[in-house]
Specification:
Shape: elongated
Protein name: Chloride channel protein
Family: Belongs to the chloride channel (TC 2.A.49) family. ClC-5/CLCN5 subfamily.
Membrane topology: Multi-pass membrane protein
InterPro entries: CBS_dom, CBS_dom_sf, Cl-channel_core, Cl_channel-5, ClC
GO molecular function: antiporter activity; ATP binding; identical protein binding; voltage-gated chloride channel activity
Distance between the termini: 46 Å
Radius of gyration: 32 Å
Length: 816
């Protein structure tokens, strides 16, 4: 008894707690060997044999009652067991198994009472209720962001004296002193020079307006980057690369939290209003996913299951694109094609519902006052002709070239930012880029306006009453048939606009490379569309003038007679926008549907498809990765791309650890290790899980246990049960091993053991192993030979091997 008492005095878990364990390990260390475990502890079809036998247990000759000797602490769930550390990968198989068990239990209980039946119905309905809430919140926030960004963008140029909360357009709507031609000029709207020096004419007034424009831009950018840096570092960027990684099963705590949502919403308005070459469409996906993640905490079904939560996030991503482009169907397809890793049919229906509610909510708010969901909605009425497929394909080639160029240069700049001193000064970088952008943008009216307004201008199909320079054609006719305007010779305004648009194109191409990836919310959809829309409009005007002056050429005379409306430059702008966006993101189906929903015309699907496919082919020929996949690889996220084939003839034994000269694999034995032995292994290693074997000599595999579950279970036993000491035996078997008298109580941890870990043989081709990891979402699999444990392959090992085979740096995979 004296020996036992001495052992009890040493009952501290190395005086460590779970919190100390977390703080002593780096993010990368925590992930070294992620464990996968199918948790059968709650399954109805696995009878709890030990509980049934509790009354009949004997202690094998000891003097202490058996009820105190065998500690099975997992009869009731322990908080924390089965959860995951930050920067870790979830176990898809275990999560899906848990959800099936939960659903089976609710179904069985629903037959017992009316209350249980009501609970079952509410559980089934909770998913649709959650989708409704996500749609309402996403649409409301998108409307708030649109209205605020529109007002603050106009604030750089002036203010409405009739009400400072009105933007320029709304300020002049109700004015009695405005003409149709000069509808943007009204006494109620005053530029800063009018407010400061009481005049809007002359060089000094121009300098005052110039100065105020740059000053407001710098102020907005400074506020945005400061809020992100101080309150929510995860609010920067577009968020789509991280959301793709999270949806594949990775844990990034706080990335979809409430602080990130609040700061992202505020700073997105500031960043867009600053005039930087960025958009709000990508970040709106992040905002919608934050809404989805926060609302998941209201429902146990989604709060406690990481796999189910990712189904909700897939639907939230669809809602985000729905409000970004006013394209509910395109949003669902974007989530399916671009961001989701696991997308069952049920998620497809719920994504559609969430996208529908979000679009309806935004339409109810009507942020642009045009009864449309986006500023650049447009309708074309002129049919396209077969010959025009040639310029459409040319635009596709341009989009592919621009996409490949942008990805290479932007990734090179972002890598430089990460590896040099530049990354330590995000505020200075943002202010410098903002200053350069504002100084170069103000003199040109097409760079001074917001990018969404620019795209709207470029998409516009010129009418008789349009006062834009792009519509300054010479009119040599009296009537127009069917309300359509014939092709006309370009006037002075059109030629002036072409030069300005060319300069705008050059600025957008260059400045976007340095803007995307800075420490502020920054989307890439709108800048990419702007580049393509400018190129398309330039080509469209060129084709229009060519057809007007040379309508007798063989390529025109069969379908374009003199005085007919043959070419629509706005359509070329739209096709060019789709081509450039496709070249950067490598989207195809969802991109075409989004653009189709923007125009409301079915007959333009073929030009959009031709341009989107051409841009993808050209961009893929120059580099396989889209911008989001490239940023995932740059940041070292453990994302296993399902679209790429693994074609190398390596075997599992070539990738597994330990290698030939490495230390032996750290394992636990099923019934011969003490609490102290386990604590020593945990303190000396950083692995995320351990194989359990019959004995070190036999190396026969029993199962796999997660480090986190092991720590929490042992700590819980130390705190809640007297008698568990450092010399207590831990066993993972069904029944207690024979113990000599007067030994401390044993600790049974069988219920945290995965009894069916995924295993492969040492001669399994890596092609099959990679396929297993992709399709089952594994964290690791064990390698055996004739039932004997040889090693382990983790997701990180697979990613490193793929990188090595592709002649890339395998150490770029930072997390696991």
């Amino acid at each position: 008894m004296a020996m036992w008492q001495g052992a009890m005095d040493n009952r501290g878990f190395q005086q460590g707690s779970f919190s100390s364990f977390q703080s002593s390990s780096s993010d990368e260390d925590l992930m070294d060997i992620p464990g996968t475990a199918m948790d059968f502890s709650m399954r109805d079809d696995v009878p709890p044999l030990d509980r049934e036998m509790e009354g009949n247990k004997s202690y094998n000759g000891g003097g202490i009652s058996s009820s105190n000797r065998i500690m099975d602490f997992l009869e009731e769930p322990i908080p924390g067991v089965g959860t995951y550390d930050d920067f870790n990968t979830i176990d898809w198989v275990r999560e899906k198994s848990r959800d099936r068990d939960r659903h089976r239990e609710i179904t069985n209980k629903s037959k017992e009472s009316t209350w249980a039946l009501i609970h079952s119905v509410s559980d089934a309905f909770s998913g649709w209720l959650l989708m409704l809430l996500i749609g309402l919140f996403s649409g409301s926030l998108a409307g708030l962001i649109d209205i605020s960004a529109h007002w603050m963008t106009d604030l750089k140029e002036g203010i409405c004296t009739g009400g400072f909360w009105f933007n320029h357009e709304h300020c002049c709507w109700n004015s009695e002193h405005v003409t149709f031609e000069d509808r943007d000029k009204c006494p109620e709207w005053n530029s800063w020079s009018q407010l400061i020096i009481n005049t809007d004419q002359g060089a000094f007034a121009y300098i005052v307006n110039y100065f105020m424009y740059v000053l407001w831009a710098l102020l907005f950018a400074f506020l945005a980057v400061s809020l992100v840096k101080v309150f929510a570092p995860y609010a920067c960027g577009s968020g789509i690369p991280e959301i793709k990684t999270i949806l594949s099963g990775f844990i990034i705590r706080g990335y979809l939290g409430k602080w990130t949502l609040v700061i992202k919403t505020i700073t997105l308005v500031l960043a867009v209003s600053s005039g930087l070459s960025l958009g709000k469409e990508g970040p709106l996906v992040h905002v919608a996913c934050c809404c989805g993640n926060i609302l998941c905490h209201c429902f146990n079904k989604y709060r406690k299951n990481e796999a189910k939560r990712r189904e909700v996030l897939s639907a939230a991503a669809a809602a985000g694109v729905s409000v970004a482009f006013g394209a509910p169907i395109g949003g669902v397809l974007f989530s399916l094609e671009e961001v989701s890793y696991y997308f069952p049919l049920k998620t497809l229906w719920r994504s559609f519902f969430a996208a529908l509610v979000a679009a309806f909510t935004l339409r109810s708010i009507n942020p642009f006052g045009n009864s449309r969901l986006v500023l650049f909605y447009v309708e074309f009425h002129t049919p396209w002709h077969l010959f025009e497929l040639v310029p459409f394909i040319v635009l596709g080639i341009f989009g592919g070239l621009w996409g490949a160029l942008f990805i290479r240069t932007n990734i090179a700049w972002c890598r430089k930012r990460k590896t040099t001193q530049l990354g330590k000064y995000p505020v200075i970088e943002v202010l410098i880029v903002t200053a350069i952008t504002a100084i170069l943008a103000f003199p040109n009216e097409y760079t001074r306006m917001s990018t969404s307004e620019l795209i709207s201008e470029l998409f516009n199909d010129c009418g008789l009453l349009d006062s834009s320079k792009l519509c300054d054609y010479e009119n040599h006719f009296n009537t127009s048939k069917g309300g359509e305007l014939p092709d006309r010779p370009a006037g002075v305004g059109v030629y002036s606009a072409m030069w300005q648009l060319t300069l705008t194109l050059i600025l957008k191409i260059v400045i976007t490379i340095f803007t995307f990836g800075m420490k502020i919310p920054s989307g890439l959809f709108i800048p990419s569309m702007a580049v393509g829309a400018i190129a398309g409009r330039l080509l469209g005007v060129g084709m229009e003038q060519l057809a007007y002056y040379h309508h007798d050429w063989g390529i025109f005379n069969s379908w374009c007679s003199q005085g007919a409306d043959c070419i629509t430059p706005g359509l070329y702008a739209m096709v060019g926008a789709a081509a450039c966006l496709g070249g950067v993101t490598r989207m195809t189906v969802s991109l075409v549907v989004i653009m189709f929903e923007l125009t409301g015309g079915l007959e333009y699907i073929v030009p959009l498809m031709a341009a989107a496919m051409t841009s993808k082919w050209v961009a893929d020929a120059l580099g396989r990765e889209g911008i989001y996949d490239a940023h995932i690889r740059l940041n070292g996220y453990p994302f296993l791309e399902a679209k790429e084939e693994f074609a190398h003839k390596t075997l599992a034994m070539d990738v597994m650890k330990p290698r030939r000269n490495d230390p032996l694999l750290t394992v636990l034995t099923q019934d011969s290790m003490t609490v102290e032995d386990i604590e020593t292994i945990i303190s000396e290693t950083t692995y995320s899980g351990f194989p359990v074997v019959v004995s070190r000599e036999s190396q026969r595999l029993v199962g796999f246990v997660l480090r986190r579950d092991l720590i929490i279970s042992v700590e819980n036993a130390r705190k809640k049960q007297d008698g568990v000491v450092s010399t207590s035996i831990i066993y993972f078997t069904e029944h207690s091993p024979p113990m000599p008298p007067y030994t401390p109580p044993t600790l049974k941890l069988r219920n945290i053991l995965d009894l069916s870990p995924f295993t492969v043989t040492d001669l399994t081709p890596m092609e099959i192993v990679v396929d297993i990891f992709r399709k089952l979402g594994l964290r690791q699999c064990l390698v055996t030979h004739n039932g004997r444990l040889l090693g382990i392959i983790t997701k990180k090992d697979v990613l490193k091997h793929i990188a090595q085979m592709a002649n890339q740096d395998p150490d770029s995979i930072l997390f696991n």
